[in-house]
Design goal:
Layout (H helix, E strand, L loop, with lengths): L3 E2 L35 H7 L20 H8 L8 E2 L1 H8 L16 H12 L1 E5 L5 E5 L2 H8 L10 E2 L4 E4 L6 H15 L8 E2 L1 H4 L10 H15 L1 E5 L12 H12 L3 E5 L2 H13 L1 H9 L11 H14 L2 H30 L5 H20 L3 H19 L4 H16 L3 H19 L4 H16 L5 H21 L5 H15 L8 H22 L5 H21 L5 H25 L4 H18 L14 H8 L6 H14 L1 H10 L3 E2 L4 E2 L8 H7 L3 E2 L16 E5 L2 H5 L18 E6 L19 H21 L9 E5 L11 E6 L5 H6 L4 E2 H11 L6 H9 L14 H10 L12 E3 L2 E2 L6 H20 L4 H7 L13 H4 L5 H13 L4 H13 L6 H8 L11 H9 L2 H7 L1 H4 L3 H12 L4 H5 L9 H4 L3 H5 L2 H15 L13 H19 L6 H16 L1 H8 L11 H11 L7 H10 L2 H7 L7 E5 L1 H8 L10 H23 L7 E5 L1 H10 L6 H10 L1 E4 ...
């Protein structure tokens, strides 16, 4: 980012680093105090160990922690000198002149030989002190030169204290080659030679000690020196296969160059440079091959120990894949910069009458534009090709081959720029003109044929006409190319691959799509296999073919898959493996932001999603994608408030803690302090500047211009060359130069990780207001600087911008301050990711909006009519209006159809569920009142005319909580104890408002439209959980939840994701697998009130059940508030113990208390003795469930036990969860069984229960048969609504014949399932009560 000076401040690292060679000599010699004790390897190893006493108890991740002793060890490493030597000195040294005085000349020696035989002997100094004691000093050549005041042949100092360029080279090079390459670099760059000093390791580093430096020195002191120098020159010989890229120390130098923000350029001897220039002009393919063949994992050093040491450090810090990517991108940047310079030079010198020279200029411009396009910038390439085409046609005419080539490249560029119609027009034009000029069989014409076919097949949706035309063109191109350049030529194979891709993506309307897939299979195989053999696995053409082949396998799997074929799954597996390989190689070669890499990543995600939706998916294969990778694929623009809000929401879904750990893993955050690291590995330049461990050199100190803000913020500048090039628009500088004539950065001194980027500022809602205040201070600080600095316009013409991570590569908060009156081309280039600071502040202010306190809702409720005066909606309009205003989700219950239970739908627009939900909210408000000692709360939930449930009627006098005020108050106090603050009360209000929105058909339809078929459901809790898991759906459908803090949103999701219903469990109604979500709830949610709040909502939900527009007040009943309340506390206590417990055990224990209380003698004498082995997982659990379904009113448990043991194994398997998927829940099963048994609950013979169990078995078999017919046997659960039978029982009254009638009804039943076959209702249209007379036969047809 800038030139920096580290002075005497050490570069601390956060990650422990493996030691290389022994460091016993690190502290000897002239570089540091030789009196220091030597460190043995064992001592160093000991220092790198972390003492548990040195970190806070409970620290979850010590992987990034270093001990204080180890930090001291790092502090005492010798400083790496940044001295430089002049080129004149190097030239004279090469010739063996006065500075060398050696016997090696010209090509006779390499740098390694020079070091051993000349430099090391020359730099040993012996002297005698007092007492004739001999002292030996081991120096670097530079240090001896300073002592000698060495002068070069130009009369200038041979060495300078500060080098301007770091020279990276291979020690196997001839010394003369190094000198010649630097000479050529000086000439090419037209710089003042007297001012250029080069850091050459052989002369600058103490060669007596360097072999013994540990890796810590190379990753801290050395890296800091590379960054401080700021410019790295790599000697590249030969240019097409540079030896330095095979040497491990050069790779490490390039890595340090990248990490510290230094500039990279290449230097070559003159002949090599001329050959390279010729390749840039005439052989783009050769240049492209160099970039595709970079593989740093093969680099080595002379000493194997050095190879191992550096390889280990690369793996620890960046990894070979990312390092390959970085090296390739750095080389690409240099190539573009060099090509641009060469082009500008050729344009200045070209004689427009010299056709060859002019043509060479056009060729270079063409190749340069292609390079820019292939680096992922088609927009810039498009402009260049359009300008070039006009120029070529003006000089040579429209039919010139160079004009036709440029037209073709323009068409390809438009295609890559996502302008298909314009590209199609240019491709057709190019084809016509080439066919006319060159003929049909010419290779250039065939290229246009192929390109036109590619575009036609890429236009989506592809029409049948386009498909057929593309297919014919491909066949024509392949036939022509096989005849002219051969069947194995890369261009031929490229066309074969594209034909295969076209066939794989044939339109859905094609009648022979299966045949197209089969034909494509052979073509893909031919192209991918031959290209891999002829080129390399990492060549761009090979990667394109491999990508297309893997995509074909995915698409074929989707087309053919019926979910049952393991062989087809193996094809999908093969596709996933290949896509992962292609993605990895593309990241290495072209970077993770390149459109081709992004396309592979998206297809890989699709393939993994297909696998997860398969019955063969075993779990544990989710894609481990970093935030950086995820967001770079999803976002390329972030300059508006909505986009910024969206990416912050994405972060909440991704996980704020997950991002923190990602930054820790990258070394950017210290896990002990949660602060940014300021070492050199990684090199976080803005963090280092803000923390004061590094200062910029060659820039004025402008800190004082911040005035009163100087203690909180820091002014930083861009690199000098970036400032100088602010007006440049050529590809080498576009997006890299400063964005305006005056462009500085304002840094934040707060090192806490949540301030590393605007993305995480105030992400925990408790800090939002403080974050807004600080950002507004930052704005004022920036304007204070602008008013004090010279040359800046008025503040209304100054732009303040932030960039969200990872669209910025520097993970430390920095504000761009930009002079908008003098904006340069880079400002336009980067504007898509520049978010105005005011827009960011606006988003945070929206997030910080505070809803009315719950007390305001209570006050509005109390201002309405009392439950005794007017309990209708008309008497309580204020509270209803207030709820509608602040909880817009309530409207969902009023729009379209709403299912009150599986298979039962309200009349469209019916307010039933709306008032039930309002009733649940009012039950919550009543509890709030009572918890705050307001007697109105009890009145709201119990008083008034409630029919049989009134406090003075039966059964109300027994079960209405109005007769148990102390118990009601105790319940409310317990509930209030789980509410820690106003935010918790508001969260519960939202909780109740949204808890049943999943019953809405409109809501279900919208959420299901975003889900794969396997996950689509009509279960109202599951569908709500799916919505809550998608932040975009939440924003669209549940705005109140969307405004909640991330933590509270997560808790709400955690509750509904359990899909657990406490009341149904108490009645034995839920399936065994229903408890799996509860048991898999993360432990933190068992202790922070999340589970209790979720269970409390069920109690308020039941209280609101009877509410309607004429009586909106809730009803508090003893079995619910006391019974379920106690059961809930017991359940939470059991789970909070943290003991391993299975679903069967949890279910059994939950039902056992009431069972033992109701059947004490049976429990002690018959049941308990059987409780060994698997009894409680099978017969025992089922007996408890069936008795609970009768609400423990059945009087003959002994007979029931006998029946289950001897006659109803099918029932035992079904109700114990051992019958396989799906497990079947009988919705309203307690009513069906309890009422279905009729009045004979004594059932001395057991025949009544036998018939009832037979009825249950018939219903279970019916559902399982329906699931099998629907092909959904692998569903987890099916919910069957049995209310039609319950209704029949009620209608029959005393004529109902108990279990026998229940069996007759079950035999006549059918199942009517929903569209997703996840739930249904019994269809009793075929049943006729045998006690009723038969209907007369219908007349006529």
């Amino acid at each position: 980012q800038a030139y920096f000076h580290s002075g005497a401040v050490p570069g601390l690292v956060t990650h422990r680093s493996p030691m290389g060679n022994t460091a016993s000599n690190v502290f000897s010699g002239c570089v540091c105090d030789s009196s220091k004790d030597e460190l043995s390897q064992s001592t160093i190893d000991k220092l790198t160990q972390v003492s548990i006493d040195e970190v806070d108890a409970g620290t979850e991740d010590l992987s990034g922690v270093v001990s204080l002793e180890y930090q001291n060890f790092l502090n005492n490493l010798p400083v790496c000198p940044i001295h430089g030597c002049s080129h004149a000195f190097l030239k004279e040294f090469e010739s063996g002149g006065q500075h060398g005085k050696h016997e090696f000349y010209g090509d006779d020696f390499n740098i390694g030989t020079l070091c051993i035989h000349v430099i090391k002997p020359f730099t040993i100094e012996t002297s005698r002190g007092l007492g004739c004691m001999e002292t030996v000093e081991y120096l670097s050549y530079a240090e001896k030169a300073f002592r000698m005041n060495l002068i070069d042949s130009r009369g200038r100092p041979a060495f300078d204290r500060e080098a301007l360029h770091f020279v990276s080279h291979a020690w196997r090079y001839r010394f003369s080659l190094l000198v010649e390459a630097l000479r050529n670099w000086l000439d090419q760059n037209d710089v003042n030679e007297d001012e250029q000093y080069f850091w050459v390791d052989a002369f600058v580093v103490n060669q007596h000690e360097a072999q013994e430096y540990p890796m810590e020195w190379w990753s801290t002191r050395f890296a800091a020196a590379v960054g401080e120098i700021g410019s790295t020159i790599m000697i590249a010989e030969p240019w097409h296969d540079p030896l330095p890229l095979k040497r491990v120390w050069v790779i490490w130098e390039i890595y340090c160059t990248n990490q510290t923000g230094a500039r990279l350029s290449l230097a070559m001897p003159k002949d090599t440079a001329e050959d390279f220039k010729d390749a840039l002009t005439n052989s783009f393919e050769r240049v492209q091959s160099v970039l595709s063949s970079v593989d740093v994992s093969t680099c080595v050093a002379y000493h194997q120990s050095h190879t191992d040491m550096v390889h280990k450090e690369i793996k620890r810090t960046i990894g070979f894949a990312k390092l390959n990517e970085m090296v390739s991108l750095r080389l690409t940047e240099w190539l573009i910069e060099t090509g641009t310079g060469q082009l500008n030079d050729m344009k200045r010198k070209v004689d427009r009458k010299d056709r060859k020279a002019l043509l060479d200029t056009f060729k270079l411009q063409d190749n340069l534009a292609r390079m820019v396009r292939e680096s992922g910038s088609p927009a810039e390439a498009e402009t260049s090709f359009k300008e070039l085409l006009v120029e070529i046609e003006a000089e040579f005419g429209r039919d010139d081959l160079s004009a036709l080539s440029c037209l073709n490249q323009l068409a390809v560029t438009l295609q890559k720029a996502k302008k298909p119609l314009e590209a199609l027009d240019k491709h057709r034009e190019c084809y016509r003109r080439r066919e006319k000029v060159l003929g049909q069989s010419h290779e250039d014409t065939l290229q246009s044929v192929s390109n036109l076919a590619v575009l036609l097949s890429e236009m989506k949706p592809m029409s049948l006409a386009s498909f057929e035309e593309a297919r014919k063109l491909y066949a024509l191109a392949i036939q022509g190319r096989e005849a002219t350049i051969g069947s194995k030529h890369p261009r031929t194979l490229y066309t074969v691959s594209n034909l295969a891709k076209c066939l794989s993506e044939a339109p859905e309307k094609c009648q022979n799509k299966a045949e197209h897939f089969k034909e494509a299979e052979d073509l893909h195989s031919r192209a991918a296999n031959t290209l891999s053999a002829e080129l390399s696995r990492g060549h761009p053409l090979t990667l394109a073919a491999l990508h297309s082949q893997a995509c074909h396998w995915v698409d074929r799997y989707v087309f053919e898959n019926d979910g049952d074929d393991m062989k087809k799954m193996q094809v999908l597996e093969k596709a996933i493996v290949q896509l992962k390989e292609v993605e990895s190689l593309r990241i290495q070669k072209i970077g993770d932001s390149h459109p081709d890499t992004i396309a592979t990543g998206k297809k890989l995600s699709q393939a993994l999603a297909q696998k997860q939706n398969s019955r063969f998916f075993k779990g544990g294969e989710e894609r481990d994608t970093s935030w950086r990778t995820t967001m770079k694929r999803a976002y390329s623009e972030l300059k508006t408030s909505p986009n910024f809000k969206k990416i912050r929401d994405e972060l909440r879904v991704f996980g704020v803690e997950k991002l923190r750990r990602e930054l820790i893993q990258g070394g950017y955050v210290d896990p002990r302090t949660n602060c940014l690291t300021v070492g050199t590995q990684p090199f976080n330049i803005f963090a280092r500047l803000a923390a004061g461990v590094q200062v910029q050199r060659r820039v004025p100190d402008e800190q004082s211009k911040l005035g009163e803000f100087a203690d909180r913020f820091v002014i930083a500048h861009n690199k000098p060359e970036c400032r100088e090039m602010w007006q440049r628009s050529d590809p080498a500088w576009l997006g890299k130069a400063s964005m305006s004539k005056r462009h500085v950065f304002l840094l934040l001194k707060d090192m806490h990780w949540q301030w590393f980027n605007i993305l995480t500022v105030g992400i925990s809602n408790s800090s939002l207001h403080a974050a807004i205040t600080r950002l507004e201070e930052m704005k004022e600080a920036a304007f204070t600087y602008v008013r004090a600095a010279d040359g800046w316009p008025s503040t209304d013409r100054v732009g303040l911008f932030v960039v969200a991570y990872p669209l910025t590569n520097v993970p430390a908060f920095h504000l761009h301050i930009v002079d908008l009156d003098n904006a340069g081309p880079s400002f336009s280039k980067l504007s898509s990711k520049m978010l105005p600071l005011d827009a960011a502040i606006d988003v945070l202010k929206i997030e910080a909006e505070v809803p009315p306190p719950v007390a305001d809702f209570v006050a509005a409720f109390k201002r309405g009519c009392s439950v005794k005066d007017n309990p209708s909606k008309d008497g309580n309009k204020e509270i209803l209006d207030m709820l509608d205003k602040h909880l817009p989700e309530l409207q969902i219950y009023r729009e379209g159809k709403v299912y009150t239970s599986p298979g039962v739908v309200e009349i469209e627009g019916s307010p039933t569920e709306y008032y039930r939900t309002v009733g649940a909210i009012l039950a919550f408000l009543a509890a709030y009142m009572s918890a705050h000692d307001d007697p109105v709360g009890l009145e709201v939930a119990t008083a008034g005319e409630r029919g049989p449930m009134s406090v003075d009627k039966v059964p109300g006098k027994f079960i209405n909580m109005g007769n148990k005020p102390a118990e009601y108050e105790a319940f409310c106090k317990r509930f209030a104890s789980t509410m820690k603050d106003e935010g918790d009360w508001w969260s519960m209000l939202i909780f109740l408002a949204v808890h049943d929105v999943g019953k809405s058909v409109n809501f279900r339809t919208r959420v299901n439209s975003t889900l794969p078929k396997k996950l689509q459901t009509d279960d109202h809790d599951r569908i709500l959980a799916h919505c809550l898991a998608d932040v975009h759906l939440t924003a669209e459908l549940l705005p109140s939840v969307y405004k909640m803090s991330y933590d509270r949103h997560a808790k709400l999701l955690a509750g509904f994701a359990t899909n657990f219903q406490l009341p149904q469990m108490g009645q034995g109604e839920v399936t065994v697998q229903s408890l799996s979500g509860l048991l898999s709830l993360p432990e933190e949610y068992l202790h922070d009130g999340t589970l209790k709040n979720y269970l409390y909502h069920s109690i308020f939900d039941i209280a609101g059940g009877p509410c309607n527009e004429k009586f909106i007040f809730p009803l508090a009943l003893v079995p619910v508030y006391v019974g379920f309340g106690t059961a809930m506390e017991d359940l939470c206590t059991t789970l909070e113990k943290g003991e391993a417990i299975k679903d069967h055990t949890l279910y059994t224990n939950f039902l056992y208390t009431n069972f033992k209380k109701t059947y004490p003698q049976f429990e002690a004498e018959e049941f308990k003795p059987l409780c060994t082995g698997n009894f409680l997982k099978s017969v025992g659990l089922v007996l408890l469930r069936i008795l609970a379904l009768t609400r423990n009113t059945y009087k003959n448990p002994s007979k029931l036990l006998s029946l289950l043991q001897k006659s109803f194994q099918y029932i035992v398997d079904e109700m114990s969860g051992n019958a396989g998927d799906p497990q079947i829940m009988l919705y309203y099963g307690p009513d069906m069984l309890r009422m279905g048994l009729g009045e004979d609950l004594e059932d001395a013979s057991g025949e009544n229960m036998r018939a009832a169990l037979s009825a249950l078995e018939a219903v279970f078999r019916l559902v399982r048969k329906d699931c099998k017919a629907s092909g959904l046997e692998d569903m987890v659960q099916y919910d069957l609504n049995v209310t039609p039978i319950v209704t029949m029982i009620k209608n029959a009254g005393k004529s109902w014949g108990g279990g026998k009638s229940l069996l007759d009804a079950a035999k006549a039943a059918a199942v009517s399932s929903n569209s997703h076959c996840t739930e249904g209702i019994l269809d009793m249209s075929a049943w006729r009560d045998p006690k009723q007379p038969a209907a007369p036969p219908s007349k006529g047809k």
